[in-house]
Amino acid sequence: MLAVSDLPDILITESGGSIPAWMFWAKAGFLAAFFVVTLLWRTVRPLWQYAAALLTLFLALGLVSLVRNAGWYQENFNYAGVSFFRGYAAIMTLDVLVALAVIAALWLMKRERKDFFLVKGRMDAPVEPIRWLGIKAGESWSVFGWIFAAAAGVGVFVPTVLGIAFSSEDLVRALPLFPFAVLFAAVNAFTEEAYYRASILSTLHEIIGKTHAVLITLVFFGLSHWLYGSPPGLVGFLMTGFLAWLLAKSMLETKGMLCPWIIHFVPDVVIFCSYALMFVRS
Description:
Low-confidence stretches: none
Number of domains: 1
Largest sheet: none
Order of helices and strands: HHHHHHHHHHH
Number of strands: 0
Mean pLDDT: 93
Number of helices: 11
Oligomer: single chain
Distance between the termini: 38 Å
Strand content: under 5%
């Protein structure tokens, strides 16, 4: 898992180097080899769906990367002066396509949406007690889901939005963009829950256990925000890693995507609104 995560990219970047162009495809090749091994070696055969889901994700991300680097894409969606909506709508569209590819793969393997959490789930499901957070037996996700979402939003607001040091004029200019920011946050929360959470948990938790499956999503999601998170670096890793743990926990315990989507959506609103603020200042 670490070999195909962002860890190699982080180590290269932090040591002052630049990520080689072949790095992504080397990871995809590693996953392809791993998938073949799961088919041929009986001992690891239970992991074939996990390998297939990750390989689908990487291939879809690779194709999307090729599209985003294509000349026609740059000319139409990434040029100087492109509108906030047009630029991010193009990114979100490609992200949706990645999510749909992963969902299609999971559907072919699982056949039932509930088996890969593509259902609402039970918002009234009990929260497994978390002593160090003061959550006792009997509490439900219908209450704590919103509490966690609000806390995540505040946690992101402090280092992200306040760090911009925006003026009242910036806020006024950005206000018309905020509805788009909310829309993009909703889409981003869904797509990331689909391919970062549902794909891993649905193919692993019954094989290696809930704890280890959740830990893998924590590391994978956290490392993916080290270089490009908001905020980036160690702080971003710790914040998103903790959030990933909550999201995975809520998905497994509610047996659906609605609760983790809500918890994910609220901080994403803050992040995309910060993008709108930075856009009007550029």
